[in-house]
Design brief:
By secondary structure, the chain is an alpha+beta fold. About 45% of the residues lie in helices and about 15% in strands.
Length: about 220
């Protein structure tokens, strides 16, 4: 059996001497290698052509994935723009909480959405979003610096969702803040019965944009 060091040396020699097969054209024509998809042997040239085809196919698939991702991102950007425009056009601040929730459900196809706000002026105390929130939840939201994505580990906030969270397999928690303020004034909860809809490893950039738009709009209620 050929020593592995010898084969490495041969491979390196061929890399360092690209004109080797020009000096021995008959050798190049006589070399055969196993076909990757069958037991027959093919020429080295034919095998190289097959490898180029496989690489070309892989590049085409990768390009198709990039184009698809680009289209999906464009679609999401359009939805975010429409939602933002609707919130900006709303003159009545009291209508904003419902518009935030409805926009996420209808515009982004989020099956379960809940919103709670706190520390708002007394004039908004009758809004559904101003339902009582435990101090423990508020403390948790104050400590969050980015959205949470993952399975529903029986968070208290999940009980705000339809069915009291019993049909929620995954969720995202988006804290509401006025700009870069350390204290929160609300929490937006997105839920789904699909355990893979909001996964721990997913990027949160888009969710952060949603939180920013919602926070900026709802901050009109804090004044």
């Amino acid at each position: 059996m050929t020593d592995p060091l010898d084969t490495d040396a041969i491979a390196q020699y061929l890399l360092d001497n690209p004109g080797f097969f020009e000096a021995y054209p008959d050798l190049l024509a006589s070399i055969t290698v196993p076909h990757p998809h069958g037991g027959r042997a093919v020429s080295l040239v034919e095998r190289q052509v097959d490898m180029l085809r496989e690489r070309h196919k892989a590049l085409e698939l990768r390009l198709a994935e990039l184009v698809q991702h680009g289209r999906e991102n464009d679609l999401i950007s359009e939805k975010l723009q429409r939602w933002s425009r609707e919130l900006l056009r709303t003159r009545d601040p009291r209508a904003l909480p419902a518009l935030v929730v409805d926009g996420l459900q209808s515009g982004f196809a989020v099956p379960q959405v809940a919103l709670r706000l706190w520390k708002l002026p007394a004039q908004y105390g009758d809004l559904p979003a101003m339902a009582e929130v435990d101090a423990e939840v508020i403390s948790l939201v104050d400590s969050m610096r980015q959205p949470y994505c993952g399975r529903n580990a029986d968070f208290q906030a999940s009980r705000w969702l339809p069915g009291a969270g019993t049909q929620t397999a995954s969720l995202a928690l988006l804290p509401m803040r006025v700009g870069a303020a350390p204290d929160s004034f609300g929490l937006l909860v997105l839920g789904s019965p699909d355990a893979s809809r909001f996964e721990p490893g997913m990027g949160t950039t888009f969710l952060e944009r949603i939180a920013e738009v919602a926070s900026a709009s709802l901050s009109r209620l804090t004044a």
